[in-house]
């Protein structure tokens, strides 16, 4: 499935400068063996047996640990960095911007940090979006606000134009905060840079509120988002109990992966049905969702349904369209499900009080919670360490509790999904009591 | 406008029993003059001058102070009370249920408290809704949950059937928690009781998340609701800033009164346009909303609009329908405004990223905040005091910081609205910078 | 008790300038009679009867309504204002600073707003504290933080030195945000100004987290503080339940008035004993606190005690000292009570697990909640209106739900206290079940 | 350091019964290879190189994966379980109790679940503590409250008495939720059970708010606690800024490990000095804490210090005492540090306004946040799976993102500490700017 080269992190060149962090690094007693170039984090942490492991280590791959290096590639006083945020909002964007800025400025002492406005549009000169100089002073409090001070946008721009502008502004390192579409775009930028044989690093900080990135224990903002999601489920439950045959229907994020729906549902235990993209379901039939819902209402008088936005797409007619980020436009499963349920009960002559809640904008626009706040700082620090050491075309991540450098091509090769045969989904089934399949 | 009789609170009969609260009442040093029958709270607290006041006191009316009386009408060991919650959810319903139950049981020692399910449906025997006995034990923690443990429903039932059931269950006091439609219904119940010459008290605790009740400084749940509303406005602001030409549009509660929209907008200062039912507006024209919005986007790149659900009804085609509570069905001004703005900008060929947020269910289903929690307790205690003293066909309220007993007919005579010429709306205009009129 | 002159608000002179708010004021349909000079808010809102009222209006006094006037005293382009915050922290200080700045700058267009650092120290040149120019930009987000961006300090400074500095900096209006000690200090400043026959207005915004100011429905920050206080009581309850014979003891603010203790206790209903300065108590005796506590532990196994910091001072030996603000140094009733209870149970050989919580700094340093946020804005706007119209030696307040101008001498004449014979304390007794007196 | 046997999980005997979860297990497509007995989670996830790994796998050890087995040891209809909570409070205790109860009752259908009161005292008959039958109904809402419905206590009891009582009550499985002292106690219970050759399983769910347990990515309640801790730091910062030479001093939990202090400090970035048990410090000297603090105050006018309760013990005189849990009684570093700093500045004649905040009880008594809530459920489910399969003398944990079964002896062999040479502490140094050592 993987080969060794998949894990290789690209470099711009030899590291010839002493890191300004040496006083901190040297203070460590064991610093002698701190992040040696040959260190690896295992890509897999299970084995059918230790004996088996011993036989198969040829198949075990290692990820490069992230962290500060003693020698760096860029000479700080002559280094300029740029930061851009792309795609939809996610809690923690401002934390990442702030920690990148502080680490680059206060710790590495580089010459300048520029913020580009409105995503990739800001990297194209003719789009005429303002750039702002980012200083520790101007980012001091931004982490207390949701969203991104740089603004965002969807959609790619031509790599040639982007690299023209980077060259014109003499940017040495570009930090790109965005989802898989964005990272694909930044690989094209890195290709164009390579074609021109320039020494500009491109480092990604993967942003996905859906937690669907590979080689990542968890994506930043995910915990904040799931906390917010629980509020919506709680409201749905209260509303469902407040009226005869009350049904609370909540749509949560999750285009391809149902992590937020699963975690938020487990956190409050008020959901009776959880629908995720990874597990197809039927509306009709003796064990279809509608029949199960009717039984639940007959028994308990109320019900809560949590649906991830990417669930049930097989049941709706696709529009065939894509958005500016290249994501296929999903049908709105929440509105569709509301209509299906209402028309079903109407046709059966049964009273129904369905309240539909779509909290997406409120969820994704809150500030990061304390845990995500720390996580964003550590990701950003490691992104800076990687960038200053001349690494490129990679993202920072945390894998099995260690921070790692992951080649972009590896990070986006496939999506992290809820395993329908795994622990998490089994716990959801146990907690909701819903059948393994609606059919 | 008012006459003296408007303020008269009806009584079931003479108070012949000593209050079980006498030990508490007697402890007070000044208890001798505590809530004498002749005490009054002034209905008006302004005067163009004291001299003027002296001349005009013939026009000044007084509300009866609420509170415990030394003599009561009902003999506690032989008294049974019922509680019912009607209409839409509102923070604090469970607090009221809990404090009514505790005061009736622990302080007055009445025989039984029954909770009726699902609003007025629960008061009609053939609807077959369960009744639950409410005890201090079973209500101990309910105030930590939003909604109502009794459930609710919209719509009236025939008063004859209701009084039949009250008689059958030997209910002496009925506590009705609901809005103006509900209170109108309870007046019909009181009429039927009077026609049968029964001694059953009917006491209302006015519930209106919109804060639109007369002779009430503030309705319970209002402060909790406005706090929640600020979260939606904050999200709208973050989303608006996150995309080019971003517009955050938030619909908040307020069928006839824009209090929540005004207060929530003032609390976060992120709103640029506040639209309320009390102040009509135009979309078109050089100073219409659309033109003002375009100017704002040209200047600042983003904008936040807060609209109360009852605003702009004059611009939409009415459906002419009413809901089960008899409220006229409003057009959905949020969705309508979203479409109007989007089609306007599309027709002008301007980019627009509008994010629409409708947080109503999440707002109204949260538990009461600490302030509302105290307020609900005090309202409930005063409702019990009034009921035990034989008062009927009245609601409890707080007026100019004092708790008062208000005849139902007076409480629902008209609505409390935001005064377009008053302090509050002026502060909104000052804070948003929006023009006094869009036209 | 009061005479008419007590309610007279002092003015610097004749109002000769048109208000820049005229466009807003004129928009109002009834603006013709808006805040006429003779308008009054009744100082009292109860009467033993309307008949009685008519006879006694000679004793009824009216407070001047706050609000914008059409004619103002200061010519905005030549007006400079200063703001200072004094004494202990309170939620909402930054909201007040922010709204003063915005109203003075954006609405009245005055020349400059200066912030003085560290309380009255900042008003004395030789203390060498920095002054900062306050602009809408620099105050834009400060309301999201607790505390005060200007810093604070305790203690007065010599009025002569302060007025020297005000004259040197050409300040026309001084806004003073502080408690009764601070307001006393600002009266001395106003005296010195009058002695020099200068036209400098001194306007107070009363700050007291204890809610103990006269002619104020509620002080700003109070609701935020009581919400925070409930968290401490909740924690005390959880801790008390978590150990055998567990006692949770919480000290809350309230030097002279037990409002926070009463409201916070009512909000969560976990307190079994509430001790406030207004109601003396005994430790010893068959009905003393210790005996009651023992009975409670024997019955229920755990107990929660809420004590206001000013309670029980009669039982402790006074240090006789005062702090820099001139407040007498209270004995620490929380620590003292902890020791008394522990030694009592030790001497009786009974197990006791007492957890003592003193949350004061955490309570008073949080940002204002949405309700207080709106309240602070409205207070600040009215303070600016009063100042620009040439009023002085007064504070703004809200009385019976209307904003009013109150002479400083009247505002600090006595303290607002919990009435041991009133509604609030009776509700506390009803909710806790504690005896009316421990003795 | 470890040998293979350290990872061996003890079993009571052969699994002869089909799991009631078979319908869920069988639904899984890959269930055939689900948690085979030989599966292992690697105990270590780093290697200096993959080549090196291959040579050294003899030194790599594997932990047994947790999870449901197809065959179980206990016959559900004849199985009775007990639950006990010991030691100090921690967010999530009620979540664990609730999920244990639900899983045992609803999924495995065992005969009875008993809750023992007040820790190990409840397991000794002569202590006469009540036992409660735990049902899904009675635990339905307990996760919304902090603390533990079972109460707790410190200290061990004689294993003989405990096993006597377990035998008398016919308990088959004992779930023990507690810290390392508690787990040591439960090993003694397991020893006594083995000595009597009884088939009673003893399963631990490790509780440590300090996050100091081995082979655990994170302990339950830790994230909730760190969130609460940030509030105290925020308050300290606001207070420090509010007075001349203001110092905010916060004591946070962490007897042996400074994780909460580190994470909470990183989350808000307001701390200037973080002191943890793992890194000794000096007060005196040119680079001692006092000198650094003075420099900070001279430069910035205010400072925030966060100290873990176990820090600086080398500087205080030990009392030599231990508490009932056998933990050595630490000196109160917060109070001590407050006094040291104050007397230092007094002796230097410098003004100082130090505000000391000790929020421990408030932190540890809150309900679990949504993330911890999910984590507690999953831990509890896995504890039940392990117990039903006959495992004993082990704890459940999560290691490198997988749930695992860890022998008790291994789990308590040493503590998890902040590595002074690791990533986390380096990020703290980078963020605070404090020197690597105070000396």
UniProtKB/TrEMBL annotation, chains A, B, C, D:
Site Important for substrate specificity: list residues: 181
Name the positions where ATP binds. 88, 154-155, 179-182
Tell me the pathway: Carbohydrate degradation; glycolysis; D-glyceraldehyde 3-phosphate and glycerone phosphate from D-glucose: step 3/4
**What's a Gene Ontology MF term here?**
6-phosphofructokinase activity
Annotated binding of substrate, by residue = 208-210, 253-255, 309, 361-364
Q: Name one GO cellular component term.
A: cytoplasm
Known cofactor(s): Mg(2+)
Described by its record, this protein's role is as follows: Catalyzes the phosphorylation of D-fructose 6-phosphate, the first committing step of glycolysis. Uses inorganic phosphate (PPi) as phosphoryl donor instead of ATP like common ATP-dependent phosphofructokinases (ATP-PFKs), which renders the reaction reversible, and can thus function both in glycolysis and gluconeogenesis. Consistently, PPi-PFK can replace the enzymes of both the forward (ATP-PFK) and reverse (fructose-bisphosphatase (FBPase)) reactions. Catalyzes the phosphorylation of D-fructose 6-phosphate to fructose 1,6-bisphosphate by ATP, the first committing step of glycolysis.
| Binding partners and assembly | Homodimer.
Kindly provide the name given to this protein in its UniProt entry: ATP-dependent 6-phosphofructokinase
- Tell me the organism: Rosistilla carotiformis
């Amino acid at each position: 499935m993987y080969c060794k080269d998949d894990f290789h992190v690209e470099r711009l060149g030899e590291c010839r400068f002493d890191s300004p962090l040496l006083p901190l690094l040297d203070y460590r007693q064991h610093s002698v063996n701190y992040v040696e170039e040959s260190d690896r984090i295992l890509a897999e942490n299970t084995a059918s047996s230790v004996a088996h492991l011993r036989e198969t280590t040829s198949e075990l791959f290692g990820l490069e640990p992230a962290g500060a290096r003693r020698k760096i590639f860029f000479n700080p006083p002559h280094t300029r960095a740029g930061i851009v945020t792309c795609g939809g909002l996610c809690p923690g964007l401002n934390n990442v911007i702030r920690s990148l800025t502080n680490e680059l400025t206060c710790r590495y002492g580089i010459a300048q940090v520029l913020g580009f406005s409105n995503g990739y549009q800001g990297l194209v000169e003719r789009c005429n979006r303002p750039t702002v100089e980012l200083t520790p002073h101007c980012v001091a409090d931004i982490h207390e606000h949701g969203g991104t001070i740089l603004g965002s946008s969807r959609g790619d721009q031509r790599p040639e134009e982007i690299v023209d502008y980077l060259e014109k502004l003499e940017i040495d390192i570009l930090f790109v905060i965005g989802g898989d579409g964005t990272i694909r775009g930044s690989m094209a930028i890195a290709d164009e840079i390579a074609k021109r044989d320039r020494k500009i690093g491109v480092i990604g900080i993967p942003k996905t509120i859906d937690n669907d990135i590979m080689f990542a224990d968890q994506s930043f903002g995910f915990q904040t988002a799931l906390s917010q999601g629980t509020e919506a489920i709680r409201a749905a439950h209260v509303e469902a109990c407040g009226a005869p045959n009350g049904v609370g229907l909540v749509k949560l994020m999750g285009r391809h992966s149902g992590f937020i729906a699963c975690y938020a549902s487990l956190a409050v235990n008020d959901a009776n049905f959880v629908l995720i993209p990874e597990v197809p379901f039927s509306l009709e039939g003796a064990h279809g969702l509608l029949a199960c819902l009717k039984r639940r209402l007959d028994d308990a008088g109320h019900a809560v349904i949590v649906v991830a936005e990417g669930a049930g797409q097989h049941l709706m007619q696709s529009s065939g369209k894509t958005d500016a980020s290249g994501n296929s436009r999903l049908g709105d499963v929440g509105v569709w499900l509301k209509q299906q349920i209402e028309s079903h009960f109407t046709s059966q002559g049964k009273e129904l009080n369905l309240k539909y809640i779509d909290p997406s904008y409120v969820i994704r626009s809150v500030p990061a919670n304390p845990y995500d706040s720390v996580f964003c700082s550590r990701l950003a620090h490691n992104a800076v360490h990687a960038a200053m050491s001349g690494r490129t075309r990679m993202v920072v991540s945390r894998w099995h509790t260690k921070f790692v450098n992951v080649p972009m091509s590896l990070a986006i090769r496939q999506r992290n999904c809820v395993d329908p045969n795994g622990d998490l989904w089994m716990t959801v089934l146990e907690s909701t009591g819903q059948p393994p399949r609606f059919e």
